[in-house]
Amino acid sequence: MATNIMDRRRINGPARSVEPLYGPGAAGADPFAGGRADGRGLDQVRAIYMKTGPLSGGQHEPSESAASGSAYYEQGRVRVSCAVYGPRQGRRSNARMGVFDCEFRYAPFACSWKRRSHVRGADEKEISLMLEHAVAPAIRLEAYPKACIDAFVTVIESDGKAATIAAAINCISAALADAGIEMYDSVAACSMGLRGAQWVADCCQAEEDAAPCSMLIAHMPSADEVTYILQHGKATPEQTDQAVQTCTNMCTRVYAVICRCLQASLE
Amino acid sequence: MSGVVVTPGRRLGLAAEYEAGSGTYVRSGMVYASILGTRAEEPAGDAGGKPTVRVERRNAKFAVPAVGSEVLCRVVRLNPRAASVAIMMVGETPCQEDFQGIVRVQDIRATEKDLVQMTESFRPGDVVRAEVISLGDQRSYYLATVRNEHGVVFAQSAAGNTMVPISWEEMQDPRTGAVEKRKCAKPF
Questions:
Q1: Interface residue ranges in chain B relative to chain A, Cβ cutoff 8 Å
Q2: Which of A59, A81, A117, B148 is within CB 3.0–4.6 Å of B186 for a Cys-Cys bond?
Q3: ipTM of the complex as predicted
Q4: CATH number for the domain including B42?
């Protein structure tokens, strides 16, 4: 009987551990030999289109149901929209600091290879938490004691998981700025995939499936701080180091695009 | 430099040369913008000092109550110990969504606190001007109406007419002449 009693309070690793199995990856033939399918350079992200205020009535008088701020973000075939509500009274409150909550959802038709359930999946919860951790450091939460800021992200079309998360981070940053929330800096994010020994920027789904490792970095260029790193797969420390360098540089370029769009929205 | 659209995180100047106004923050000796808006400068006062730099937003829509801020709220519920109110405005800015607040019976008047009766101070539906005295518990902000200019600013009688204050403690319906008790705010 005693063996059936589980200790649920501590993290119990398995009694025996085995090394994960990696696919052939770099050893196999390169399916993208001779450039990328869409003719981009290796360090080129897909074309970005962004618009603020589609769900919040733009410059018009705010109505009761409209969001405080919103943004639509497109990067190639990745299409994401985000609505920000608040600062408003939250369910869980903290007298010193505000609370930032994020909900990430795929639309049922977002992934071309399978229809998503309308029930919130485990991966969506996980990504919601990732987005909170990536964006919260940029918000001046101490300026909103006891208040709650909510962001709702909907993926309209997904093309590469890491790229979708990066797009979601960029979209939230823009929506927060549109809402007039006090922030230290805008967060810009960028993803990369490994192909052979080379890093390829902003992978689409087919490229990501073939990549043995993918990397996502969220970065605040003005403060020069990295808020989130996500590495998925196997890479050598040198490769990881190189990816962090390249990715932060690309984040700065994405940041410039976001800032230009935000400025244009006010002019 | 004024009138330029800036985004959060944009450097506005040295903290040694500028005072950080609204919509800005200071980090490691530099003033940065913290909201999306246009940059504006205010020259230094006669007493000397530094010019103030701030970032303005045309439709600054949001307000969060803080300790000491003056709020306008509507009475939602009464019980003998406290009145529940919905905070509708903070200072001059309307809240997009109501915040919940509480006026405890001991925070209604400054004097003779033990004699204050809740039903003789507020009624549901009254609009009250009050001051935030504490961020309160998990749910509500704590408000007080002890000052003269705080209290009921708008109330309707049982007949449904808007009443006018006739003393610190009474309001009258000008049509029916009925007198009801309230904690009146001093008219400006």
A1: 5-11, 23, 25, 27, 32, 34-38, 57-62, 64, 66, 96-100, 135, 138-139, 141
A2: B148
A3: 0.80
A4: 2.40.50.100
